[in-house]
């Protein structure tokens, strides 16, 4: 239905943006990978995937067509919904995920929150051949209210479904160990430890 939206970024967070296009503000869910590519932009173009359920019509946006393409592949697998697909693309880059699927690295894939051994195996079984046919060029990257880094990371992790008190403790420990991390680095480190 929609291919992309090009407009002004009215609000940016690691999990979603509000993109104003033609006077209408669209709430678009994004992955951490997309956030890292658009966080310094005032205007941007997001390739969208429009997901319809009985109780919701939701937009998922991506900085590149290749990330959206991989997202659509991921959610075509039984047991992987849009939020899990977004979680997968937030936990690792599209290139890392593509390589893990093509090489059948079950252990790497099941490290992602919400992905068990059976889902990881199903994902590889259903997508390995499709992604191999596309080749390595399928994922070539295309150029594309102020909170503190820990606050942004906390908000993102809570929106991804982690308990706030657990996340606060984890982020506090991460900040003490490595105080100069970016939001993306902090979230990725927390995702590995949660």
Tag the structure with descriptive keywords.
194 residues; alpha+beta; globular
Structural class: alpha+beta
Instruction: Give the helix proportion (percent range).
Output: 40-55%
Strand tally is 5
Uncertain residue ranges:
140-145
Taking all Cα atoms into account, the compactness measure Rg is 17 Å
Please summarize what this structure is.
The protein is an alpha+beta fold and 194 residues long.
Describe this structure in words.
The protein is of the alpha+beta class and 194 residues long. The chain is 49% helix and 20% strand. The protein has helices at 32-38, 65-75, 82-91, 94-102, 106-109, 117-134, 149-159, 164-177, 183-193, and strands at 4-12, 16-21, 24-30, 43-52, 57-62. A five-stranded mixed barrel has the order 1-2-3-5-4. The longest helix has 18 residues, at 117-134. The chain is globular, with a radius of gyration of 17 Å.
